[in-house]
Design goal:
heterodimer; A: about 375 residues; mainly alpha; 16 helices; about 60% helix; globular; B: about 170 residues; alpha+beta; two-stranded antiparallel ribbon; 7 strands; elongated
């Protein structure tokens, strides 16, 4: 049982702690807003899971929210960040148990990820209070990875439960539920003063399209639960999941859910850092541009940046060397960069296809195979 | 985490750092609890804690009435408020002042039944019970009746009658 005792670099877990802290701050802030707008839930009709006597008074509720916010802020700056996440998420879960009317899938998911992240070695990087030297040296960052595996499990469970529920529902399987969502989306767009063209509305609200969309959504959710775990399918699964959540974000009110899943996906990124090398010819404009681009957007620390050896300068100004030492040139370079840089990740399939096409036109030794290492 | 005076950075021991055996126990416990929570969510009418995203596209249209002592017909409450008389004292009571839920507070308007039709009817029954339980002693309001027009995923229109009596 290697994975029970496995220890890996915790650098990316620090990034997750920081981002989850930001999301938790936003969520708590929204609850303060709701308190102002809707009033204190305990003074109105509410449905607690816990005994009524445990439901806090208004004053205690405010204090609990303030502590939750403070915990989230500690998670952001990294000073007692794990403890902050633990306290913040525990309070959030307790308050959710005080009124089931306030339950939202996305809020519960965020609290669970925060809770799990508190048990990860996420206190070894992105320690903002330390300034530029925010990360501990690599040997000190190595820590147990079992809690990270639990975050991955939580992602799969979420997809499995959501997709499984839809699969068991005949109205979802058949497309009826999706059709009504499409129709409501069109009506809301019209009400918001942004009516869509008639031909598009007619096409978009056909039962056949809704049925197809339903089956695609169910298949995607169920397959993501597994594909994210397999090395060969992980990157395409992450891409498909990102597209899926962007579509949901554009078509439904899901609060922070899309952002949360983006953060949760970091748990699937290979923990080891800078195992790929970007080699650039700094005398060329393209080389300098690539160096700057990667230096700015390599948030997951995938690349080491080096100067291209003089012996290789004739074969292009930017080269990516993969984990196994294979070299990417031409279109395989943007494909390798897009695969590893979150900001360009959505462009990865297009770049990979272009690289594949170029590889076919070239000699058998060059091409996309060089960029096909695991994420 | 580390002090600025220290030469060598070190990891601050955290109370949340579990030992090898405790980690495994924690993982088994977490997986077990989550499994139980999700399985049991299927039995809760509103499937809370079950990650059932967008589970239905159903609608409810809630019409509220009250049963008044000495009157045979129900009194409609279009905006949820009414004049209640108890021991000669008249006071205005309002459904909307007690029930702030975005679905249950929508009266006489077709509203998306978030978390499913069954879930909203379950919540509505509890809201009626809660409201009636808080009526003043001697109130001339004997109970509340909600007549709910339901549409499950755009089909099968039905009228459901829920009531709560003192």
């Amino acid at each position: 049982m290697k994975w029970l005792s496995e220890e890996r670099d915790g650098y990316l877990l620090g990034l997750m702690r920081l981002l989850l802290g930001v999301l938790l701050c936003v969520q708590v802030w929204a609850r303060f807003d709701e308190l102002t707008y809707w009033g204190y839930f305990g003074a109105n009709f509410h449905l607690p899971f816990v005994p009524e006597a445990w439901v806090p008074s208004l004053a205690t509720y405010r204090v609990l929210l303030a502590i939750e916010l403070a915990g989230a802020l500690l998670a952001v700056i990294g000073w007692f960040g794990r403890e902050g996440l633990f306290v913040g998420s525990s309070i959030g879960i307790f308050l959710m148990l005080c009124d089931r009317l306030q339950y939202h899938n996305n809020r519960f998911s965020l609290l669970l990820f925060c809770f799990l992240c508190a048990f990860c070695p996420s206190d070894r990087s992105f320690l903002l209070y330390r300034g530029r030297s925010h990360a501990l040296p690599e040997p000190l960052r190595i820590g147990p990875t079992l809690p990270r595996r639990l975050m991955q499990f939580q992602v799969s469970l979420l997809y499995l439960s959501s997709g499984g529920g839809k699969l068991l529902d005949p109205d979802w399987r058949g497309g009826q539920t999706m059709l009504l969502r499409f129709q409501r989306g069109m009506e809301e767009a019209a009400r918001a003063g942004a009516p869509l063209p008639g031909w598009f509305v007619d096409w978009f609200t056909t039962p056949a399209l809704a049925s197809l969309g339903s089956k695609a959504a169910i298949s995607l959710e169920l397959s993501l639960a597994l594909a994210l775990w397999l090395r060969k399918t992980r990157v395409p699964a992450l891409w498909a999941g990102a597209m899926f959540h962007l579509l949901i974000q554009a078509s439904a009110r899901v609060e922070l859910f899309s952002w949360l899943m983006g953060v949760a996906y970091v748990a699937f990124v290979t923990p080891e850092l800078r195992e790929r090398t970007l080699r650039v010819d700094s005398r060329a404009t393209l080389g300098r541009a690539a160096r700057t681009f990667v230096a700015v957007f390599d948030w997951l620390a995938r690349f080491r940046i080096e100067e291209l050896p003089a012996s290789e300068t004739g074969q292009g100004s930017v080269v990516v060397v993969g984990r196994s030492g294979e070299t990417a040139r031409g279109w395989a370079v943007p494909a390798a960069l897009a695969r590893a840089l979150p900001v360009a990740f959505l462009a990865w399939p297009a770049c990979a296809l272009l690289a594949l096409r170029q590889a076919r036109d070239r000699s058998p030794t060059a091409g996309i195979g060089s960029s096909a290492g695991p994420g | 985490m580390i002090s600025g005076r220290e030469r060598t950075p070190r990891v601050r021991p955290s109370v949340l750092e579990l030992g090898p055996r405790a980690r495994v126990v924690f993982a088994v416990f977490y997986v077990g609890v989550m499994g139980a929570v999700i399985v049991s969510a299927q039995r809760r009418p509103d499937h809370v804690f079950g990650f059932q995203m967008f589970n239905e596209s159903s609608t409810v249209n809630i019409h509220l009435f009250r049963r008044v002592r000495g009157r045979r017909n129900l009194e409609a409450l279009p905006n949820g408020s009414f004049q209640d008389r108890s021991h000669g004292v008249v006071r205005t009571l309002s459904w909307l002042e007690r029930v702030h839920d975005p679905v249950l507070s929508q009266l006489d308007t077709p509203t998306h039944a978030k978390y499913g039709l069954e879930g909203q009817l379950f919540r509505l029954q509890l809201a009626l019970d809660d409201f009636v339980a808080r009526l003043p002693r001697g109130s001339d309001t004997l109970g509340l009746v909600a007549v709910v027009e339901t549409l499950k995923n755009g089909r099968d229109p039905q009228v459901v009658r829920l009531k709560a009596e003192r």
